[in-house]
Design brief:
seven-stranded mixed sheet, 36% helix, 7 strands, 23% strand, alpha/beta
């Protein structure tokens, strides 16, 4: 298991073969409102979002709190976007910190009623992280909320288009080819993420453990799907290590366009469907 480490900082840097980070981030799946609403907290004073990224979770929750609200990340590229968003709100109770999660107690002197970690727990060593959070940051009656997701499937909306339903299987094959290409380049516990963190013994550190699961299907354009595939850390690592090889997202795009051509469909018009599975873990001392 990896610690949350500086090696993450380069996963979203742009190069000649890659879109910019700001181009990609809007395509990251959005946590469903019902998941956010299920997050409990005994008090609504202080809140911190660890590994906040560009602030998707933070900005959904920070307005529910009256005291100090902190968003932190180690990735400089993501932090720059996060800091800009927070600074625009001009609220003295909102803070952003660029640092390793294990150094937060050096910057903060409060305990927090809610700690959130979105799509990042698999980057941490939980045997180090949870004792640290319990001792240094979490209030006695506080809550830790862990959010995560992964894409189950993308496919053409064959029912709406009235085309051969077997096309769904062929598109899944092309998607699986993309995953097979980049799978070995994930620098985190990807399998545990896909299982909803079943390998983690949360009860070793918390008396209360609740797990909620959600599946959300959304319509996407092909361009949106391509941008989503480019957000994967494994994809970016693959691109860095194999500049001589064809971009696997471009391979996927080409094969899908070939299927469109067979059906006489324009590439911008056929809706694609993306199914994401979301998990919410509620943890209390």
């Amino acid at each position: 298991m990896n610690n949350y480490s500086p090696k993450l900082k380069n996963l979203f840097l742009c190069n000649k073969r890659r879109r910019t980070f700001l181009d990609m981030t809007p395509r990251v799946p959005t946590y469903p409102d019902e998941a956010i609403e299920k997050i409990p907290f005994a008090k609504n004073e202080n809140y911190i979002d660890i590994a906040a990224g560009t602030g998707q979770v933070f900005f959904k929750l920070q307005q529910k709190f009256t005291g100090e609200r902190v968003a932190t990340d180690l990735s400089k590229k993501q932090y720059e976007v996060l800091a800009q968003k927070i600074d625009k709100l001009n609220d003295p109770n909102l803070k952003h910190i660029l640092c390793d999660a294990y150094d937060l107690d050096k910057h903060l002197n409060k305990k927090y009623d809610l700690i959130t970690i979105g799509q990042a727990l698999h980057w941490f060593d939980i045997d180090k992280l949870f004792p640290y959070l319990n001792e240094k940051l979490l209030s006695d009656d506080g809550t830790i909320a862990i959010l995560s997701y992964y894409a189950l499937e993308t496919y053409l909306d064959t029912e709406e288009l009235g085309v051969d339903v077997n096309l769904r299987n062929s598109l899944s094959y092309y998607e699986n080819q993309y995953y097979a290409t980049v799978e070995g380049y994930f620098e985190c516990d990807r399998n545990n993420l896909k299982s909803g963190y079943q390998q983690y013994d949360f009860k070793k550190y918390f008396n209360t453990v609740e797990v909620h699961k959600f599946e959300i299907e959304t319509k996407q354009s092909l361009d949106s799907i391509l941008k989503y595939f480019r957000t994967f850390s494994a994809y970016n690592t693959y691109i860095e290590k194999h500049p001589e090889k064809e971009d696997p997202v471009n391979v996927y795009e080409r094969t899908i366009l070939e299927e469109y051509k067979k059906l006489n469909l324009k590439p911008i018009s056929p809706p694609m469907l993306l199914t994401n599975r979301f998990f919410l873990h509620i943890l209390k001392k």
